[in-house]
Amino acid sequence: MLVLPCLSESAAAQVRPTIKDRVAIEKERAAAAVAARMSGEFAVIDGVVTDTLLHPLGSADVSVVGIGARVITTENGRFRMLQVPSGQYLLVVRRIGYAPTSGIIQVPEGDTVRLSYTLVRSNALLDTVRVRERRVSMRMADFEARRRQGQGQFVTLEEIDRRGSLQTSDFMRSMRGVEISRVTTQAFAGTQVYSRREGGGFDANGQQQYCAMQVVLDGIILPRNFDLDLLPLPKQIAGIEVYTGAATIPPQFGGPDRRCGVVAVWTRDGY
User: Fold this and answer.
1) β-strands 43-51, 112-121: how paired?
2) What residues in the chain have per-residue pLDDT under 70?
3) What secondary structure does DSSP assign to the chain, as a single string?
4) Does residue 31 contact residue 39 with C-beta atoms inside 8 Å?
5) 45, 107, 209, 213: which could form a disulfide with 200 (CB 3.0–4.6 Å)?
6) Could you say which of 121, 141, 170 is where a domain stops?
């Protein structure tokens, strides 16, 4: 079980990265990727996808978010990705008829990562997907319908393109009732989104405690205490919606332990 840090307003301000810091981070990542290409020190991801009875699942979609790596499992449920740069990534597994799953993976230099994922059969009836453009427009039509209801806070595609930010988390920094903080503990290191309004309260010293919000990517529930730096870049994002308390969360984002609120991120192509 991960331990959530409790940050005061002043402490959060001290760990919030500046624009200069984020530019430096992006330059370091780009330099690392170039160095990996030059040295040939890529890694391999090798894995298998099964159902709950351990039967292999073919035709499952496996994606590594942020680097454009995407493969389909074979009939024996196997998948393999070559020349993957080292680093930490979010991996998403989907298959029609099953609930999607996701996980954080650490890819070392010049090594093979072996993974295994189990998908649970879903009772939800899915619409037939004929073309990608239709799928995207339907997802964003639902996004616009929720935006018209006025329950949450929204960032549209037009605003994303206009601002040209480096990180997807930048669009959440100015939202009401939300705190974006870079934290480093023994249990977790990364950028997290916290709700100021729900589930926090005050500690013994009278300082405000924040509550980590649930992050959802294209309808997929991401791991708790998710690092926002693993989200796709803004140029891949179609919209963002934020609900800072359980009372305002739409039914489709409901689930256990939503007292801290939900951040839903939608990509332009869909994972």
Assistant:
1) parallel
2) 1-40, 124-136, 198-209
3) -PPPP---HHHHHHHPPPHHHHHHHHHHHHHHHHHHHHHT--EEEEEEEEETT--B-TT-EEEETTTTEEEE--TTSEEEEEEEPSEEEEEEEE-TTEE-EEEEEEE-TT-EEEEEEEEEE--PPPPP---HHHHHHHHHHHHHHHHHHTSSEEE-HHHHHHH--SSGGGGGTTSTTEEEEEEE-SS-EEEEEEESSSS--B-TTSPBP-EEPEEEETTEEPPSS--GGGSPPGGGEEEEEEE-SGGG--GGG--SS-TT-EEEEEESS--
4) no
5) 209
6) 121
Whether the model clears a pTM of 0.90, i.e. scores above it, the answer is no
Q: Say if 22 falls within a structural domain.
A: no
> 143 and 45 in one domain?
no
Structural domain that includes position 252: 127-267
pLDDT at 254: 83
Give the pair of three-digit tokens for residue 133.
């453009």
Residue 72 lies in a domain: yes
State which of 68, 95, 121 marks the end of a domain. Answer: 121
